[in-house]
Here is the input.
Amino acid sequence: MKYFFRLLLVFSFLVVAVNAQQLENIAAFNRASLAKDTLMPWYNPGVAANLGVRSVWVATEDLDNDGKAEVLATDYQNNGRVHVMEQNGDKLEIVWSSPKIYGFNSTASTPRWIRTGDLDGDGKGEIIFPIGKTTASDYELQVWEYNDADNQYQFAISLLPNNFSTQGVGNFRMSREVASVYDFDNDGSDELIMSNRDHRIYVLGISGDVPGFGGWVLEGGDPAVVPVNSNSFSISHWHSVPADLNGDGSEEIVNHMWNFLAFWTIKPTGVNTYAYPDTSVDNYYVEFLKDAAVDAVAFMGIQVVDVDGDGKDEIAGIQYSGASDRDYDPFLVSFNTTDDVMYGWDTTKFSLIGENLWETAGLGTGQFWGVGAADLNGNGKQEILLGGSTNYTVVSLEYNGTGSILDPANYTASVAYSGGHISKMSAWEVRDSLGTIDTVAVGDAPFVSKMFAGCDINGNGKQEVFLSYQSVFDSIKYTHKRWNGSAYVTDSTFGVNGVVMVRNEDQVTVRMLEATLTGIKEINLGIVTPEDYTLEQNYPNPFNPTTSIRFSLPLQKKISVIVYDILGNEVKTLINNQEFEKGNYEVTWDGTNNFGSAVASGQYIYTMKYGNFSKSLKMTLLK
Here is the structure.
């Protein structure tokens, strides 16, 4: 069983930084171990490309009300897709996938983020994500809504980047790393905040019901209502989150800009009403790293956390600028309970709270990208979780309980999850020079791109963390060459044109961790894809008058097997939504229709339906 779908990542300018590939020579090599696997070919386009899942999200609200939380993962293929998974026994099963997009070849690296919510407030769960459906650089946002059938979602509404251009609004930047969907104004409907090219921050909502007659509205930031927005004092909005900075029971919208690690606040004041700061008042905005001349951002987003368990939120993140010796170090923003959350932004609220924390994992160099927060040890204080590169490491940073929470000396860093990365090399060149075998290997560096922490999808009361990984190849490519006296040339006696693909046993791109009494452990949930359901060619074929159809199921599932004529008309239902245990099965068709009458000679199609997916094959009745 393949552990996950094949994903191609185009990671813009971070490719070189994150996936630093190095050549490595190994003298000894066993050619006999390179037997061709029967499941090949796998998708491995070469050592320069990256694979993996950019973002993972958990719908703890249970989108389709079936009692199971959904785990969602992004996919860069086919101009951008999203896959929805649910736990089924000891597996995560893909139960729905957004449609493939055909008709053009987009270079869009989307979706980079995915969220769930209820934008129209009708009580039906929605899936919200951007995709590269258009050739424009800012792409398109799509909303898919639960349609009252288990694990089924229908297209509800889309948002083009220039949707509000007639109101003086710029293009929304759907290619950013993060966005927020939340009921910021507590009116029963969620809102959406994402970046815009005009550097303003807008709060988007939906008026009416979708699909239907509902439509997008500007709840906050309309230029006609808010003439002074963030474009007047900053640039490059990156991420906005709800947080209760002073612990007064009211949540603010904390806004983060890529402008020397800048922050400011918007306050919801009523239904569809938001207060933007008066820029004539001091401390409405701060650039924490302006004096240090470090133009930094929390690249994968900021994280709300309560490090000391006092009920007051802090903001954590990982500094990234591409030019600082403190890049990839975690920071914390903390307000006092007496502070004004609108006009209290100054540099005393900020500190870097760790340095080179990859050394905790025994690494001399490293990076952190994904960030999360959860109380994994149950002591009432949330740990800040940092997802690393160069192995599958997750480092936990916990406040010790005394002293200032802005003092790095008051934190303890530890390895929460070491991962155990197996396949360090994605491609090998096997060189045979007069019987002397040498190899050159290209290494890859899987890293935690994002994470979702603090959920409990299996309902056992233990905190869980889901990790998404990139730069994970599903196969290892071996290219065989021989010396012809002047140069190494391809040895076509091996594989296909000298290339042999071997399964990467370490190809899991979504991992689930669970808290234990002594730390956290990986929960080995194999991911079941639609391809793991098999439908075999009927036997005999052609046949008269009966034939057998075999199929196998990777887990317990309700399925149907139906025979159609070549025009798609139903002929005979052999299995009607019947539940089967995991295993191999066989059903017989006797050449009759649903009324018991014999059918004519010709070609027929038999289809196995399972959830939202199906497989079909042709067969021939020959009398």
